[in-house]
Amino acid sequence: MPRPDRLFALTVLALLTALLVTLVAAQDMMGPHRPEYADWTRLNPQKNFIVSAHPTAKDIYINDAGRDAALERSFPYPDGSELVKESIDVETLNVTVITAMRKVAGFDPANGDWEYGMFERMDDGSFGGMWAEVGSDMHQMCVGCHTGAAATDYTFLTYTGN
Ligand code: HEC
């Protein structure tokens, strides 16, 4: 039988180990580490886990450059603005797809100078994808829909609650 103080130390150690395991597991559930936009502003006030036609929830983040334009609806967005949309699988809570738009002066003047990017979760948890070139199939697909929001500088912002 170990001495009481050793027993105490062992109990603390066991509890700390359990906490660490829980934290690591929880982090995995939250999807990949996202340093690029971890401190950006989330535009949707409520996390939306409603299962619709596609079993995903979405969170949309904006960087500091574009924050005021989106929140105050004062368009166009300044150069350097970037929006990131996460699609989250409601069962695993993994982020499965990241779509993004960033404003790059002179990139595509006919369509608001937005670059469009799409990144999908790979088996190893990393993300693979690209920013589309002007005129590519992907670019035309993104622009095709987002032109419907041309009055708000090609962003829908339907989920912001205002
Ligand atoms: C079928 C139409 C459609 C297509 C195609 C489409 N989008 Fe969207 N997108 C939307 C709608 C509607 C919203 C707002 C609601 C939502 O988030 O689902 C949106 C929202 C976004 C947002 C958040 C900013 C905003 O507009 O409110 C980003 C970022 C985005 N889309 C990126 C992309 C990219 C990148 C592509 C191409 C790979 C793309 N979208 C293709 C319809 C579309």
Structure description:
The chain has 162 residues and is an alpha+beta fold. The protein has 2 domains: 1-30; 41-152, no CATH class. Helices cover 28% and strands 24% of the residues. It is built from 3 helices and 6 strands. It has helices at residues 4-29, 64-72, 137-146; strands at 41-42, 56-62, 82-89, 95-103, 114-121, 127-131. A 6-stranded antiparallel β-sheet has the order 1-2-3-4-5-6. A hairpin with a 5-residue loop joins strand 5 and strand 6. The longest helix is centred in the N-terminal third of the chain and has 26 residues, at 4-29. It is elongated and about 80 Å long. Mean pLDDT is 84; it is low at 23-33. The chain binds heme C (HEC). Residues 58, 60, 83, 85, 99-101, 116-118, 138, 141-142, 145-146, 149, 155-159 line the site of heme C.
Computed CA radius of gyration, to the nearest angstrom: 21 Å
The sequence of SSEs as H and E is HEEHEEEEH
Number of helices: 3
Kindly state the number of beta strands.
6
> Which molecules are bound in this entry?
heme C
Summed over residues and divided by their number, the pLDDT gives a mean of 84
| Residues in β-strands, percent | 15-25%
Strand order in the sheet with the most strands: 1-2-3-4-5-6
Largest sheet: 6 strands, antiparallel
Class by alpha and beta content: alpha+beta
- What is the 3D shape? elongated
Count of domain modules: 2
Poorly predicted regions: 23-33
- Percent of residues in helices comes to 25-40%
Instruction: Compute the separation of the termini in Å.
Output: 65 Å
